[in-house]
Design brief:
By secondary structure, this protein is α/β, with parallel strands linked by helices. It has two domains: 92 residues, Elongation Factor Tu (Ef-tu), domain 3, CATH 2.40.30.10; 124 residues, Rossmann fold (3-Layer(aba) Sandwich). The protein is built from four helices and twelve strands; from the N terminus they run βββββββαβαββαβαβ. The strands form two sheets. A six-stranded antiparallel sheet has the order 4-3-6-1-2-5, with no helix packed on it. A six-stranded parallel sheet has the order 10-9-8-7-11-12, sandwiched between helices. The mean pLDDT is 93.
């Protein structure tokens, strides 16, 4: 059954991206696991329009956070003019609850694929647990969302983060340039077969990561892949 949530904050971050913060109308937080998603719904011309979106907030948080790319579709075209106080319906959560903070995880995100990773990292940052290693690639710095928060996470024990810009001249950029390749994972992952893996991004990127990870010893049963597009 859908829950009613109220828009309490909306801000533009990066190129064609909106960050939304929704608060439960009844004051009771939604119960979910890191990296799960929900169906967000809005009324438009007498009908409800729904789309699935990953949750960026930690399960510890009362409010839900989403980072949504505005692509001009039926749902996203409704978002830019919205005012605080707008009511959303939230169905869910959905998706496997695969993250276990006691285990070691490698996270691989491309672009807005960072959103479910934020749920994991925010959850992990507030408790002891297994090692988390994030490889995060974006086309340019404007599309590298949550950059400062991620840099702060990288200072915490047990969390390591590698950044990369894939389509930008990297003069002055202190991190990796170009796509992550076999050698980057081999150089930074001791015993690849011991980790759990989660990759999220465009289908082309996720398929490439699947091939690379399995070739270096990742176990299929410990690997989770989410890609979109053709």
């Amino acid at each position: 059954m859908a829950k009613a949530f109220i828009l309490v904050k909306k801000e533009q971050i990066g190129e064609n991206m909106l960050r939304l913060e929704l608060s439960p109308k009844d004051g009771k937080p939604l119960q979910f696991k890191p990296a799960q998603f929900v169906n967000l719904g809005l009324m438009d011309k007498g009908k409800i329009v729904k789309r699935p979106y990953s949750i960026a907030s930690s399960p510890d948080s009362k409010n839900l956070e989403f980072c949504i790319k505005i692509v001009g579709g039926e749902f996203t075209s409704l978002l830019p003019p919205l005012k605080t106080g707008t009511e959303f319906s939230v169905d869910g959560p959905f998706g496997p609850a695969f993250y276990d903070e006691k285990k070691d995880f490698v996270l691989i995100a491309g672009g807005v694929g960072i959103v479910p990773m934020m749920s994991i990292l925010r959850y992990r940052a507030r408790r002891k647990g297994g090692q988390v290693i994030l490889f995060y690639s974006a086309a340019n710095i404007k599309r590298m969302h949550y950059f400062e928060e991620l840099r702060a996470f990288s200072q915490l024990p047990g969390i390591k983060i590698f950044f990369s810009l894939s389509r930008e001249v990297c003069g002055g950029w202190p991190f990796h340039c170009g796509r992550f390749e076999h050698k980057d994972f081999l150089a930074n992952l001791p015993s690849p077969g011991k980790f759990n893996y989660f990759a999220c991004g465009k289908k082309e990127m996720v398929d490439e990561m699947r091939e690379i990870l399995l070739s270096i010893g990742a176990k299929p049963e410990l690997s989770h892949f989410e890609g979109w597009g053709v």
